[in-house]
Amino acid sequence: SAVISQKPSRDICQRGTSLTIQCQVDSQVTMMFWYRQQPGQSLTLIATANQGSEATYESGFVIDKFPISRPNLTFSTLTVSNMSPEDSSIYLCSVDRAVGETQYFGPGTRLLVL
Amino acid sequence: DAKTTQPTSMDCAEGRAANLPCNHSTISGNEYVYWYRQIHSQGPQYIIHGLKNNETNEMASLIITEDRKSSTLILPHATLRDTAVYYCIVRGSNYKLTFGKGTLLTVNP
């Protein structure tokens, strides 16, 4: 398995501001993903974070709202920009060590936007 | 990726086996069945996965029917800490995980 940490674990933010969430893995991984889980809902994939190139976004998610960086094989960030209360969710990072291998999840970042 | 159907909720007595069903009638030959669980809004925890053979690990057993159209996750001796939402996911060649609503398993004392 992989040991994945996320920072911050939780935050309360004002609308109109932005928050950057960090995801750190204990070893190099091929694929990193970002998910959102809105209150009472299941997980939805936001994007695949690609090392050295732009992230690949799922339908309904755009780079201007959720810019993603992945500077190396162990680290990625997700920014939630110009936040509104509808962005209140748990944001989760997940990784595949190699393509097609088991995907493991971080503990999540709980975001509340007032 | 193939869609899965799971019961919304199930109950199980502590110490008994919990059998969680999943239907995936449109599964393709190269798609795997994965099971994760999520305890009280923590990050999903990987349980087990399989292609066509039954699988067993320290957490659970996975029984896949011969036609691969359904599967059952078995927790042999459920404890209160097994109370969680259990997700059955069919993972295809694009390697993405598409989460449905899952089954809320409640283990009762």
Primary descriptors:
heterodimer; A: mainly beta; seven-stranded mixed sheet; four-stranded antiparallel sheet; B: 109 residues; mainly beta; five-stranded mixed sheet; 9 strands; globular
- The structural class of chain B is mainly beta
The number of helical segments of chain B is 0
Overall radius of gyration of chain A = 13 Å
Low-confidence stretches of chain A: none
H/E element string of chain A? EEEEEEEEEEE
**In whole angstroms, how far apart are the ends of chain B?**
37 Å
Notes on the structure:
The complex is a heterodimer of chains A (114) and B (109). Chain A is 0% helix and 51% strand. Chain A is built from no helices and 11 strands. In chain A, strands 2, 4, 5, 6, 9, 10 and 11 form a 7-stranded mixed sheet that branches. Chain A has a 4-stranded antiparallel sheet with strand order 1-3-8-7, with no helix packed on it. In chain A, a hairpin with a 5-residue loop joins strand 4 and strand 5. Chain B has 109 residues and is mostly beta strands. Chain B contains no helices and 9 strands. Chain B has strands at 9-13, 18-23, 32-38, 45-50, 55-56, 61-64, 70-75, 84-91, 103-108. Chain B has a 5-stranded mixed sheet, with no helix packed on it. Chains A and B meet through strand 4, strand 5, strand 9 and strand 10 of A and strand 4 of B.
